[in-house]
Each structure stands twice: as C-alpha cells, then as structure tokens.
Automatic annotation (TrEMBL):
The organism's taxonomic lineage, starting at the top: Bacteria, Pseudomonadati, Pseudomonadota, Gammaproteobacteria, Alteromonadales
InterPro entries: 2Fe-2S-bd (IPR002888), 2Fe-2S-bd_dom_sf (IPR036884), 2Fe-2S_ferredoxin-like_sf (IPR036010), 2Fe-2S_ferredoxin-type (IPR001041), 2Fe2S_fd_BS (IPR006058), Beta-grasp_dom_sf (IPR012675), Diverse_Oxidoreductases (IPR051452)
SUPFAM superfamilies associated with the record: 2Fe-2S ferredoxin-like, CO dehydrogenase ISP C-domain like
DNA damage recorded as keyword: no
UniProtKB keywords: 2Fe-2S, Iron, Iron-sulfur, Metal-binding, Oxidoreductase, Ubiquinone
Record's keyword annotation contains Iron-sulfur: yes
Protein name: (2Fe-2S)-binding protein
Domain 2Fe-2S ferredoxin-type: 1-77
Pfam family, one: Fer2
Length: 160
C-alpha cells in the first residue's frame, strides 16, 4: 500500500505493508537510522520521533498511522538552529551518551523546549525529567542531560 507523509519537511511516498512498524519503515526504507530499535515494546524510547508535534514511539506505530502526518527525526533536526542548540548544550554538559539513547534524548529536550508556553522561563529539573521520562538509560544518570536542557533553554534565548 502506498502511504504519504511529510518527513523532515519533504513529502514522501512509500509502498509498504501498512501494518509494518513505522520504525522499520523509517530505518529500512527511508534511511532514517537515528531512530533505534531498543526494546521494541514501547518502554525505552530509543525509537522516538516527533509526529505532528508529539513525541512518539515508532516501534509501536503501524506505518499506516503516519499517513498525512508530519514527521521529524534527528536527521531533520540536527542541522536546524534549534537542533544544534540542543546538541551543543548536550556536548557542553557532557550529556552525550550512547548512540542508542542520544538521538531520542535530543528529540525529547527539543520537544520540551519548543513547546513551552513561555520561552523566557528555563524549565525546572522536574519538568526536564518528566520530559525525559519515556527515554530509558540504565548506564548512567540523567543529571548531565537535565543540565543540558537548562543550558539549551538559556543559550537558545531568542531562538525558542
Ligand atoms: S524500541 Fe520503541 S520504545 Fe523501545
Ligand atoms: S542507553 Fe545510552 S548510555 Fe545508556
């Protein structure tokens, strides 16, 4: 079945099994390998992308559900001013972790910062931790990532 959606600002049409997980379609058909297969059960968040401005787990979403939506992956975000702001903040806070969890952490921080009611207020630790709640990492703590969220909020003033 042919399914159309917008991916990182470009219209795409893929001919796939409509029930195939969106993660598989993104990775295997469209080369968006920043989304990772971790648990495959909606628990770890490593397959996160932004769909119509919601952070979603693509391992659980059949591709048909993406029909007519606008999707953003790290490939689309990483060269934008806001994406770069979050990535630079993660580097500054030494919050870059492994390749499995980092792409989704960037998307989660970006999503939080971009959807604040008031861009001039730095989110609290609690708000940042809540925004990261769907992204599991059992290797290290989240302190540096939380710090990165605050740095990106501060340094991105005027951007958000
Ligand atoms: S792979 Fe999708 S939530 Fe873990
Ligand atoms: S899962 Fe990436 S550092 Fe723990």
């Amino acid at each position: 079945m042919k399914i159309c959606f917008k991916l990182n600002g470009q219209a795409v049409k893929v001919d796939v099994d409509p029930l195939q997980p969106l993660l598989h379609t993104l990775r295997e058909r469209l080369g968006m390998t920043s989304a990772k297969q971790g648990c495959g059960e909606g628990e770890c968040g490593s397959c996160s992308i932004i769909m119509d401005n919601q952070l979603v787990n693509t391992c659980l979403i059949p591709t048909i559900q993406a029909k007519g939506t606008a999707l953003v992956t790290l490939e689309g975000l990483r060269d934008t001013p806001k994406g770069l702001c979050v990535i630079d903040a993660l580097l500054e806070a030494k919050g870059v972790q492994c390749g499995f969890c980092s792409p989704a952490m960037v998307l989660a921080l970006y999503h939080l910062l971009d959807n604040r009611v008031c861009a001039s207020i730095t989110p609290t630790d609690k708000q940042i931790r809540e925004a990261l709640a769907g992204n599991l990492c059992r290797c290290t703590g989240y302190a540096m990532i939380v710090e990165a969220g605050k740095i990106a909020a501060r340094k991105g003033e005027g951007l958000w």
